[in-house]
Automatic annotation (TrEMBL):
Lineage: Bacteria, Pseudomonadati, Pseudomonadota, Alphaproteobacteria, Maricaulales
Pathway as given in its UniProt record: Lipid metabolism; fatty acid biosynthesis
Protein name: Enoyl-[acyl-carrier-protein] reductase [NADH]
The entry's keywords: Fatty acid biosynthesis, Fatty acid metabolism, Lipid biosynthesis, Lipid metabolism, NAD, Oxidoreductase
InterPro entries xref list: Enoyl-ACP_Rdtase_NADH (IPR014358), NAD(P)-bd_dom_sf (IPR036291), SDR_fam (IPR002347)
Reactions catalysed: a 2,3-saturated acyl-[ACP] + NAD(+) = a (2E)-enoyl-[ACP] + NADH + H(+)
Gene3D superfamilies: Enoyl acyl carrier protein reductase, NAD(P)-binding Rossmann-like Domain
Enzyme Commission code: 1.3.1.9
Pfam families assigned to the protein according to its UniProt record, in alphabetical order: adh_short_C2
Length: 276
């Protein structure tokens, strides 16, 4: 999706923010970053490990301005301390946070949730996919402007498997449900500070995350065939929703889970034609 055209403008001019979770050019986080950059945002990107840095750095360097990268292991407090200390040293303040990080073992993303989920796998999925947003939100909020100065905004990325049973999504569905609940509680806590906190529930897209789920291709086709718009979820739509929630256009919107999935989430029974 790196060849997508994202509308340019000045909605994010003068705003700075951290994007967590870019893995390659097909990442939803990268699409969001492109849209924010096109609207004038100054960006920082977190990454974990040399291999990820090698994939992400060329993308970051293709953006206008002076985006920069900072290492962060969301499962390690010392690493997160160093990450946000680097942001504070570089910027002093930040205006927004994009959290698009999730992980579950591949063996646990297939077959039976009951029989394939291990204690360690459950803890790891919850730590990386849900608690990491709580932790990042706490750190980022301490760097955001006061309510009088305009406050700030945060988004996390979720999926319909948090609300309904999706084959093979398993422990990730449970982790995403925890992420959505966390988003609402964080929104409650940070609201008085003028910080808005929301989640985007994107439909199936061709990302590394989708590739890790058994039956991902079938999920993509079903999402298109059963959706109201009869189309795949488009990166432009997800990035546009993120722009709305993170910019001043999103005033008065917080604690929300915004579905961007061509209407798939609202379908109770798919239209499969009349019998006979």
């Amino acid at each position: 999706m790196s060849d997508s055209v994202f509308p340019a403008g000045n909605l994010m001019k003068g705003k700075r923010g951290l994007v967590m979770g870019v893995a390659n050019k097909n990442s939803i986080a990268w699409g969001i970053a492109q849209q924010l950059a096109a609207q004038g945002a100054e960006l920082a990107f977190s990454y974990q490990g040399e291999e990820l840095e090698k994939r992400v750095r060329p993308l970051v360097e293709s953006l206008p301005g002076e985006p920069f990268m900072v290492t962060a292991d969301v499962t390690d407090d010392a690493s997160m301390d160093a990450c946000f200390e680097a942001l504070k040293k570089k910027w002093g303040k930040m205006d927004f946070l994009v959290h698009a990080i999730a992980f579950a073992g591949k063996d646990e993303l297939q077959g039976s949730f009951t029989h394939n989920t291990t204690r360690e796998g459950f803890k790891r999925a919850m730590d990386v996919s849900a608690f990491s947003f709580v932790d990042a939100a706490k750190r980022a909020s301490a760097m955001m402007p006061s309510r009088e100065e305009g406050g700030g905004a945060m988004i996390s990325m979720t999926y319909l498997g948090s609300e309904r049973v999706v084959p093979n999504y398993n422990v990730m569905g449970v982790a995403k449900a925890a992420l959505e609940a966390s988003t609402r509680y964080i929104a409650r806590d940070l609201g008085p500070l003028g910080i808005r906190v929301n989640a985007i529930s994107a439909g199936p897209m061709r990302t590394l995350a989708m590739a890790g789920i058994s039956g991902g291709r079938t999920l993509m086709k079903t999402g298109k065939d059963w959706s109201m718009l009869k189309e795949d979820t488009r990166m432009e739509g997800v990035a546009g929703a993120a722009l709305y929630l993170l910019s001043d256009l999103g005033h008065s919107c917080t604690g929300e889970v915004l579905h961007v999935d061509a209407g798939f989430h609202a379908v109770g029974v798919p239209d499969i034609g009349e019998e006979g």
